[in-house]
Amino acid sequence: MVAATAFAVAAGYTVAAVPAHAAIPTITVWVDAPRLPGAKLYAQIMKGKVNVNVELHAQGDLVAKVALFNRVKKGWPDVVFGPPNDVSVLRDANDAMQLDGLASPTFWKDIANGNNWCKGSDGHYYCVKNDMAQTVLWVNTKLVKQFGYSIPKTMTDFAAIGADIAKNHPGYSLGALGDQGFYAGYLWPSQCPVNAATSATSVRIAPNDPHCTRATALVQPMLDSGVLSPSAGWDADFIKDYGSTDKVVMTIGPTWYGDFVIRPASSWNVPAGEITAYPMPKWPGEKVAYSGEYGGGIYTVSPHSKFPKEALAFAQFMVTDKRNIVDVVNPDGSHGAPTFPSTNSGNALWAAKTNADTYYSPSPFPAMLTQFPLIYTGEKPVSYDANGAWSIFSNELKKNKNAQAALAAYDAYTTNLAKQLGYDVKQN
Amino acid sequence: MSLVNGWLIIFAMISVVPMLWLVLAPTKTDPQLSNNNPLSFGNISGYAHAWKNLNFFDEGVIAKWAWNSIWYTAMIVIIATITAALAGFVLSASRIRFKRVFLISTLIFMLVPPMALVVPVFVLMDKLNLTDNPWSVILVASLYPFGAFLSYIYYSTTIPKELYESARLDGCNDFRLFTRIALPLSTPLLSLLAFFAFIGNWGNYFLPYILLPSPEHYTLPIGLGFLFYSTPALNPGVGATSVPVYKPEIALAGVLVAIPIMLVFMFSQKRLVRGMLAGSIKE
Amino acid sequence: MAKIKKAKQSNTAMWIMLSPYLFLLVSLGVVPVIMAIAEIPTKARNNRNGGWGVIGKVIHDFRLVPAAEHMLGFVAIFVPLTIVFVVMMALMLDLNTSKWKKYIRVAYIIPASISGGVAVLVWYIIFEPHFSPFKPFLRLFGIKRSDQIWQTSHLVWIFAIMAFFTIVGNWILIQYGSLQSISGEVIEAARIDGCSSYQIALRIKLPLIKKYIIYMAVLVFAGGLQLFVEPQLLDTGVFQGISHVWSLDQLSYDFAFTNGEFGSASALSILLLIPSLIGALIVIFKTDMFEDEESAARKERKQARKALEALEAQKAVTK
User: Fold this and answer.
1) CA–CA distance, B192 with C82 (Å, rounded to integer)
2) I need a surface site. Which of A173, A214, A225, A340 has the fewest CB within 10 A?
3) Are A67 and C128 an interchain contact pair (Cβ–Cβ within 8 Å)?
């Protein structure tokens, strides 16, 4: 024993006061395809210190599998990447633990701007936001110059541009409202109570609130004239009519819209040098130009985890470490994290990458940074599938072309879903 | 008559077009799929290219999915065919009690919705420590009531009871009844049972999806569904990612699922025609 | 004494040969069904004190009636369409045999290899006016944009067509096969009597395969009720939210896996079993498929004779 210790010291290993057969911590990590390269890199970096099992899962699969794990009381992964509402669903299923004590105050300060979504009504953090999908105003500078528009600072200006396009440049578009487009780009920034949860059992869903009716009233004329489309930006119809023909003058969309909808060859395929982003226009009477959010995944740690600190350390790596944010190699040859990081340190690193991207002219990063702390915090995580229900809104919109009626239909459906889950729903 | 024949041919052409599209799709690139004629031929290297792109997804897990599909289905077909053939033989040749109950049970258990059984089966498998183990799927899928029923009909119509009686009088025990009398006549039945077991299980989605949480245990059909909502191929809003899997790649995955079934169909359709419901034919 | 002993012995061997199947049947068939029923009154988020009242909660869930309506619509289109088409095609194939008919039959089963996720992909393409190989056909109907087809109200038809094409080829071959089992003498006798091919098809062949048609109808119906994979994949991977809890099976899945309400899921799936069971009872008692083989053959000959006699009687009247 003494000889072994001496040898270990001589060889440069520190002698730990644990028995030789103690295992290093093991964690199981579930991520989706875009996060996989970063996760695998982390597993490599941590070799010898922490055993990191990386498993690829689709974002939507987690909740189903957790239900089964809870049934047999085993098998939960330690840290999981999932869609934003997962924090509510998993808390209900007792599978999201309070994270405050698991990381240093420095980290929580770094992510303070980005982690509001993850703050529970008790003021504690239950998840870590991976990336931010705040809405910004994407602008086609070529078309704007061609038509002689100025960048709208208010939603009234935006609507005026819409009216002008309808009159003088028919066939051009200000974007698509399908999927969560209308919610994230208009209702949420307007502070309309769509999923305004005040606790785990109480939510306000009020389609007739003035914040909602002003949004539907604003888009209605543009829907009527065809300047706004009820499809989603990636629907084959929209791509054919406006996207691939470079007919979208400007549109309110999330930070990932540029790289994943506007740019790809199989999507809009807008030529380089035309696209940039500006801050959100303000709603009338507001002092702040709020953003909505369209996605932005989260990491949750399971309370059944044996190594919660190590589990959270993985999430910290993904949102702050240069090796993930800038360096990691993705399958399509690109480098770094694909979307706007949630921490101050993270997005500072990401800025250099985006600023150097010659596709955009000028860089959309400043607008993204401006809107980063301005996501309206009235919308909260809920346990019913509020996001999947937006197809009801789109269907109604396509049928009747009336935005307020479609919103009412959506709200009626989510109200039923919420009540069925035991929520107390305030409709005023 | 020619009207009838004409319609038969037209429906045959309609039947073939979708598969034709599927097989031709990986030869084209994604823009070509949108812009060129849907039934045009791109470039044979498209298949290699699409396969390479598919392998970017989780470092080539698709090869594992293909292998899983092959060996799970093979095991299921073997176990299901043997157990069902034996069961049908017993039901047709023996004098055990509850025969009619077993027979009716084949129909009943074919109707039970898999959704009802999935959680109990999951809990059962957990008690047997078979969670996330392919054998859980193999065992569950090997229950083959339809096969038992087919087998019963086949043996009942092919082998007259008198044959068993005389063999018994000659001193044959029941095992020999099977090996000496039934088994030699079983080739058409066994291939029929294997056929239905194969096509029922190669494309099975729901059961393996629930019982096998790890992607490395997925089969091709589950993998295909996984690709649907993990890649931008069909819905960029859902799967915004930096993995280059688009429609040609998804079509290639679809080809891997569909072609084996198609080939098995084409080579076995004669046996189907020989009449399974009505027993063997005296042609 | 010796005879009784022998009888006992032979049964043991039979039970042993039956045992693998029996083992699977009991452990993976019967036991799970019992567990599923026992699952219903367990405690869950929507059934905090447990109990069978959860069945009422399931029936009153606001998504049940729409899903049930979808399924009724789907089954009302899919089942008759399939049955009629299959029988018609099988009879047509059997009208006269020619060499090329063999190749035609092969063509019919090709769509059957396209099911589940592959079906969603292929049918998405077929119904997408921009990609479809049937573009000219769609244009005939004035369909130029994808949202003319892909709307929730059209899903009943879309899924019915998808399901139809997947199974129709197989069943055509199976029913064609059962037509082959009709004894040639009966057909010859009718032909000698002057019946046309069409009359033979409808008056003689059709009644003789009636029980196989009923069996097919029950299986098609039961299978149709359990529609899950296609709407689920369409919803999660293609048009998010278009068919979220569209079918009853999807609703059951949602109970189980979105909210962990396994009792509700179990209750709903077992409720789904009831219509199928009724169909099964019809097959068992109205056909002879689950009877002794000899009486079945006897019934068949009786039926054929009756059909021939009826035809003769009709001829006698018209003469």
Assistant:
1) 23
2) A225
3) no
State how far the alpha carbon of A45 is from the alpha carbons of A39, A143, A317, B116, in Å: 10, 47, 11, 44
Backbone torsions φ then ψ of A136, nearest 5 degrees = -135, 175
- Give tens-digit pLDDT for C197-228: 888 888 888 888 888 888 889 889 988 888 88
Highest mean pLDDT among A207-211, B234-238, C7-11: A207-211
What pLDDT is attached to residue A16?
43
C101 within 8 A of C93, measured Cβ to Cβ = yes
Backbone phi and psi for residue A99, each to the nearest 5 degrees, phi listed first: -105, -10
Here the tokens at position A307 are 């190594």
More confident residue, A407 or C297: A407
Closest residue by Cα to residue C160 from C105, C224, C117: C224
In angstroms, rounded to a whole number, what is the distance separating the alpha carbons of residues A131 and A115?
10
Query: In the beta sheet, which residues pair with residue A131?
Result: A341
User: Tokens standing for C301?
Assistant: 């000959």
> Which chain B positions have a beta carbon within 8 Å of A56's beta carbon?
58, 61, 215
**Average pLDDT, integer, range A365-386:** 93
B281 closest CB neighbour out of C114, C121, C180: C180
Residue B218 distance to chain C (closest CA, Å): 14
In whole angstroms, give the CA distance from residue B231 to residue A317: 24
In which element (H, E) is residue A393 found? helix A390-400
The domain locations on chain C are 63-318
Q: How far apart are CA C172 and CA C189, in angstroms?
A: 26
Residue position matching structure tokens 């940039």: A276
Select the residue of A390, A420, A422 nearest C62 (Cβ to Cβ): A420
Between C294 and A187, where is the model more confident?
A187
pLDDT the model gives residue A407 = 95
Residues of chain A contacting residue C256, judged by C-beta atoms under 8 Å apart = 64, 67
Closest C-alpha among A280, A75, A267, A296 to residue A180 = A296
Cβ B115 vs Cβ B206: under 8 Å: yes
| Structure tokens that stand for A308 in this block | 């919660």
Three-state SS letters, A285-351: CCCCCCECECCCCEEEECCCCCCHHHHHHHHHHHHHCHHHHHHCECCCCCECCCCCECCHHHHHHHH
Question: pLDDT category, A15, cuts 50, 70, 90?
Answer: very low
Domains of chain A: 23-129+297-338 (3.40.190.10), 135-293+353-426 (3.40.190.10)
Q: Give the C-alpha distances (Å, rounded to integers) separating C177 from B58, B270, B277, C93.
A: 46, 9, 8, 11
Residues A260, A275 contacting (CB under 8 angstroms): no
Nearest CB to C262 within list A71, A398, A421: A71
Q: What are phi and psi of A129, to 5 degrees?
A: -75, 135
Give dist(CA A342, CA A171) in Å, integer: 37
Q: Which of B186, B277, B283 would best serve as a mutation to test chain C binding (most C beta carbons within 10 A)?
A: B277
The predicted pLDDT at position C209 comes to: 86
Tokens at A225, concatenated: 């004239």
Of A179, A399, A416, the CB nearest to C240: A179
Architecture of domain C63-318: Orthogonal Bundle (1.10)
- Find out whether the peptide bond into A303 is cis, omega within 30 degrees of 0: no
The pLDDT assigned to C294 comes to 47
Asked whether the predicted pLDDT for residue A6 surpasses 60, the reply is: no
Q: Which distant-in-sequence residues (6+ apart) come within 8 Å of B33 by Cβ?
A: B25, B247, B248, C131
- Interatomic CA distance for residues C81 and C66, integer angstroms: 22
User: Among residues 209-268 of chain B, which lie with CB inside 8 Å of chain C?
Assistant: 221, 224-225, 228-229, 234-235, 237-238, 250-251, 254, 257-262, 265-266
Q: Does B17 touch chain C if contact means CB atoms closer than 8 Å?
A: yes
